[in-house]
Amino acid sequence: MSPPSCLEAARTQRRKRKRRRCLPKLMRCCATPDLAKLFRGNALSEVPVSAALPELGGRRIHGIIDRLIISDDSILAVDFKTNAVVPQTPETCPNGLLRQMGAYQSALSQVFPGKTIRTALLWTNTATLMHLPHDLVMATLCDTSVA
After folding, report:
1. pTM (2 decimals)?
2. Could you give the CA distance from residue 71 to residue 57 in angstroms, rounded to a whole number?
């Protein structure tokens, strides 16, 4: 097997192992009544987003939002996290996750002007949805240093 095809085979095997590990956790999330809205037919999955963010001096971000729930007056962006250690509060979340969700918040406010944008993290290890305060994710995003 040539090096590139060997490397691709190894990547494929890693992805398969990760799916096998994550599937039971995801199934538990799907069976949790409080999380049902994230898995209904009207929830959009793996939604690409790209926008120039004023909070980052106009720098463009690109990302994929795991779940997007659009209602008449609001948008909920949810990212799934498989961390082994789940933070107890939004304030104790890693800054990188808060920045990511702040970037999604900013980008979605451009796409959906006038709608309330909310963000949350779905912790798959505990099947819990943690809503993130707008001010927290935006402050963390604004504290990002751009090189």
Report:
1. 0.79
2. 30
